[in-house]
Amino acid sequence: MHADLSPVIAATAQWLNRAFPASGGALASALCEVQARQAVTVAAWLRYPTEMDVALVGIAGPGGSGRLDGITGAPASPDADEDAHAWRTWVDEVVASWAACLLADPELAGRAVAALADGVHTDGSPAEFRRLVAPDDTDRGAAALLRHPDLVAPVAELHRAQLADRLAPGRTLIG
Questions:
Q1: pLDDT tens digit sequence for 138-168
Q2: Under a CB-based contact definition with an 8 Å cutoff, are residues 85 and 19 in contact?
Q3: What are the C-alpha distances in Å from 153 to residues 16, 72, 103?
Q4: What is the pLDDT of residues 89-139, one digit of tens each?
């Protein structure tokens, strides 16, 4: 059993990076990856706010990328080597959808990060999500596809209502 959300975060961020790749070279790829990982981390922490939630997803698994692949037009089986794509089983559709929402709307991302302030994942220490909540021109250019509201809309719309409910005023993460 996984003690944390790192497999879900890594796989979901990788999925986002493959579905909406960086525009440019190596620096753009690195900046895009950081932004995806920050968005996925915030989304995962919102989705699984307690240690019990994390333990349950570790046991049951997050569901995989099947539906997301279909929405974005990715091939059902990228190649014959299934082991090379086993990471896709750790992709969480809801987390990917919420991360897409956060990437397309920095104001919403700021509200999401603020909602995490007293959660078990932050452990009282401030987490750094600057590239998510306050992207500069270089960040936006590197992740142009990943941050484009129209392009990520099919993924973002899957679970946007749940994210809005989670971030509603007066709502606690544990509830």
A1: 999 999 999 999 999 999 999 999 999 999 9
A2: no
A3: 13, 10, 11
A4: 999 999 999 999 999 999 999 999 999 986 777 765 556 899 999 999 999
Residue partners of 29: CB distance under 8 A and separation at least 6: 17, 21, 22, 142
CA 160, 162, 167: angle at the middle one, nearest 5? Answer: 95
Q: Say how far apart CA 117 and CA 110 lie, in whole Å.
A: 11
- In angstroms, the CA 51 to CA 75 distance is 35
Q: What is the pTM of this model?
A: 0.91
CA 97/CA 117 separation, integer angstroms:
22
Helix (H, G, I), strand (E, B) or coil at 126: coil
With the CA atoms of 93, 97, 99 and 104 taken in that order, what torsion angle do they form, in degrees rounded to the nearest 10? 160
Cα Rg for the chain, rounded, in angstroms?
A: 15
Q: Write the DSSP assignment of 18-81 as a string of letters.
A: HHS--SSSHHHHHHHHHHHHHHHHHHHHHHS-SHHHHHHHHHH----SHHHHHHHT--SSSSS-
- Three-class SS state of 174: coil
CA–CA separation, 40 and 48 (whole Å): 12
